[in-house]
Design brief:
Length: 108
């Protein structure tokens, strides 16, 4: 399926892990909103999830965004509606240099 910009109909929030002062002289890690993007968020079918498990991770969602070199697996995550999605892999599925496909795991 070829993606068009008009397919990006969901608003997502990109979060990043940041160290914040804990008030006792140390720091604690906290997820902080980095920005919002338009995206296509799709839950994967059972067959796609099982295929991903064979590759070593239990991917539950696929998120398509415009390419953004600042987004990195395990360093950023996605907030979409009432869900948190951990980014485990990023690729350019069409090798167009236009879109990224983010493979994500639903965080419970």
């Amino acid at each position: 399926m070829k993606i068009k910009a008009s397919d990006l109909r969901h608003v997502i929030v990109i979060q990043e892990m940041t160290k914040v002062p804990d008030g006792l002289g140390g720091y604690k890690a906290e997820w902080v909103d980095k920005g919002t993007l338009w995206a296509l968020v799709e839950p994967l079918s059972m067959n796609e999830t099982l295929t991903a498990q064979k590759l070593g991770y239990s991917v539950t969602h696929r998120v398509i965004i415009r390419q953004d070199a600042t987004i990195k697996p395990h360093e950023n995550r996605i907030k979409h509606r009432n869900k948190i999605l951990e980014i485990v892999a990023i690729n350019d599925p069409y090798e167009s240099g236009e879109f990224f496909e983010l493979k994500c795991i639903l965080v419970v």
